[in-house]
Design goal:
It contains 11 helices and 14 strands. By secondary structure, the chain is of the alpha/beta class. It has 2 domains: 213 residues, 3-Layer(aba) Sandwich (Rossmann fold); 64 residues, Alpha-Beta Plaits (2-Layer Sandwich), CATH 3.30.70.980.
């Protein structure tokens, strides 16, 4: 795998009047990487992607995608990328095959080459048996696979996926990510936004953005290790979860307390304060089923970063 950058961004900025949507963002994505771009709604993810796709012009800073300057060569950028949005953007009144035939023409594929790529994409997406089905009649998971097939018909070296699995069932999400990993293994660079932290675990590298600014970046393991190095994570299980949350949020030893599935995750400076937390819960009549240290997850990292930014 060529280790050169497929995407390179330096101090990228986008202003809409006085509002700064993207504020001096810098990062690199190496060729063949799956790069996760994470942040809450309205943080600047989609605006950044639109600049990288040559759709929006940056207000300041520089960016290169697939070797082309996003400000000076937007047409070249668009010819060398694939893009898929969260919202299904193909033609619902056309069949699966008609959609792919249309986009093959848009990308300049004709004749036997277009038919070959279309059939290859149908097979990869598990859509061969649905080629005559109207796009509007496909289940959500198959609609997203069709959108992905259309985005990669022309074999782009760089692929942008903006929340591609939102609203998709878990099995379809897993199948979708199997396709993403397979493409990356063959050399395609993928930048993906997602709100699912289990999906972020599949990325080679991550960047967290908040209010237009990049607040953390690195491989998932490094981000978790950095958090583990300075703080301890405690998981609490109890039948009275909401009451326990309220009690722990009042404890000075608990830096952060948040719901985590059917448990609570509490951030503390050191594990030695666990007896203090347990005693506080018991004093309020809360039966503690489990209270012990755990390895921080990416969700813990994300929640902690957001809490730190809000408090700043």
């Amino acid at each position: 795998m060529d280790q050169g950058p497929a995407i390179e961004v330096s101090d990228l900025t986008k202003r809409f009047g006085r509002f700064v949507a993207v504020d001096r963002v810098s990062f690199r994505v190496m060729r063949g990487q799956v790069f996760g771009f994470l942040g809450p709604n309205g943080s600047g993810k989609s605006t950044t992607i639109r600049m990288l796709c040559g759709i929006l012009s940056p207000s300041a800073g520089q960016g290169r995608v697939a070797g082309f300057d996003i400000a000076r060569e937007p047409e070249q950028v668009r010819q060398h990328i694939g893009y898929m949005s969260q919202r299904f953007s193909l033609y619902e009144e056309l069949t699966v095959q008609e959609n792919l035939d249309f986009f093959a023409g848009v990308y300049g594929l004709w004749g036997a080459r277009a038919a070959g790529r279309r059939d290859e994409m149908l097979a990869i997406g598990g859509l061969t048996g649905q080629r005559g089905v109207l796009a509007r009649d496909l289940p959500t998971g198959q609609r997203q696979r069709l959108a992905l097939a259309a985005a990669i018909l022309h074999q782009p070296p760089v692929l942008f996926l903006d929340e591609p699995t939102a609203g998709v069932d878990p099995i379809s999400r897993r199948e979708f990510w199997d396709l993403i990993r397979a493409m990356a293994a063959e050399g395609t660079t993928v930048l993906v936004t997602t709100h699912y932290m289990d999906e972020a675990e599949h990325c080679h590298a991550l960047a967290f953005i908040h209010q237009g600014r990049l607040i953390a970046s690195g491989p998932p393991a490094e981000l978790k290790a950095a958090r583990r190095g300075c703080l301890a994570e405690v998981e609490v299980e109890t039948a009275t979860l909401l009451r326990a949350l309220q009690v722990l949020q009042r404890q000075p030893q608990a830096r952060e307390t948040a719901m985590f599935g059917a448990a609570l995750h509490v951030t503390v400076d050191r594990p030695e304060v666990l007896p203090v937390l347990r005693a506080a819960l018991v004093a309020e009549g809360i039966a503690v089923e489990r209270l012990e240290p755990v390895v921080p997850s990416l969700e813990d990292v994300f929640v902690s970063l957001m809490a730190r930014e809000v408090a700043a």
